[in-house]
Amino acid sequence: QVQLVESGGGLVQPGGSLRLSCAASRFTFSTYAMNWYRQAPEKERELVATISSNGRTTNYADSVKGRFTISRDNAKNTVYLQMNSLKPEDTAVYYCNARRGITERWGQGTQVTVSS
Fold it and tell me: Which of 55, 68, 77, 116 is the most buried (most CB within 10 A)?
């Protein structure tokens, strides 16, 4: 069964940093674009960052540009989201997503809370 398992979430103070990881298994990770989404309470899920299958192309939501960095290691079947200068409005459940054409997979999510 396809698996995406996120880790690295937690409680951090404003201005702090966290690094999320998403470990993939049971599918050909290197052929999928990978994405990080987030969903705050009572808000719709939003796309935060994307990375192409070969890692050469990345895109970010305007709200995180310059603060977040997405990367991937195809040898380790893992995608990362480095989050710096965190703000309270970054508080959400963060989800890892794998997409190839119409096929997509989701992780279970990891909670990120930014609060003093």
Answer: 68
